[in-house]
């Protein structure tokens, strides 16, 4: 019995040591010099185990969000991928608190109340050692092809929106930016790269060049190389 009690105590101390610490104490997350890995500033490696909670900001209330984040944290996930301007008619269908993300479908006029929910979710994720793989928009708002859309971005308002978002979240340590949203940047004679590049430029400037940005393509044989 004494041996069992010692083992239990050691397990409690070990869990307290591990889970009482925050992964964000290791400094800023960045890409390694060889371009193959993610690691923190102090050299601690980072493993991306992501869950696609795409509609997290749009479809759930705070109690549901807490339950979901607790569940994913307990299961060892490290990244929750979610979209500000959601895929399922996210511009016109309000969130659980009756708010749409943009006034008059205009990316230069975001709704503070809608993004206030996103602020809270990012902080809730931080408390659980979770990164948010943050998509500023699903791809159908740039390149419809399929889905509800509507297309609302051009290279001018994409830059303004990206810079606004970047400045808003520049001090959050648990954001990895993801552009693209399951759409190609280039298809046949259509080239949407100027829009995505403008949004990326805005994010970079808004965060004072203190960000990681990746891209979510639409799949296919050559999507990564493209």
Summarize this structure as a short list of keywords or feature phrases.
disordered N terminus; TIM Barrel; globular; three-stranded antiparallel sheet; 226 residues; alpha/beta
Sequence-ordered SSE layout with sheet pairings:
Blueprint: H1 2-19, E1 29-31, E2 38-40, E3 45-46, E4 50-52, H2 56-59, H3 62-74, E5 79-83, H4 112-127, E6 131-135, H5 155-168, E7 175-179, E8 186-187, E9 190-191, H6 193-206, E10 213-215
Give the CATH H-level superfamily.
Answer: Glycosidases
- Shape, principal axes of CA atoms: globular
The strands making up the biggest β-sheet line up spatially as 4-5-6-7-10
Strand content: 5-15%
Summed up, the domain count is: 1
Class inferred from helices and paired strands: alpha/beta
Uncertain runs are: 1-20
How are helices and strands ordered from N to C?
HEEEEHHEHEHEEEHE
Find the CATH topology. TIM Barrel
CATH architectural type: Alpha-Beta Barrel
Number of H- or I-type helical stretches:
6
Question: CATH class, anyone?
Answer: Alpha Beta
Mean pLDDT across residues: 90
Instruction: Say how many strands there are.
Output: 10
Fraction of helical residues: 25-40%
Can you characterise this structure?
With 226 residues, this protein is an alpha/beta fold. The chain has one domain: Glycosidases (TIM Barrel, Alpha-Beta Barrel). 35% of the residues lie in helices and 15% in strands. It has a five-stranded parallel sheet with strand order 4-5-6-7-10. The chain has a three-stranded antiparallel sheet with strand order 1-2-3, with no helix packed on it. A two-stranded antiparallel sheet has the order 8-9. Strand 5, helix 4 and strand 6 form a beta-alpha-beta unit. Helix 3 packs parallel to helix 4 and helix 5 runs parallel beside helix 6. The longest helix has 18 residues. The chain is globular and about 45 Å long.
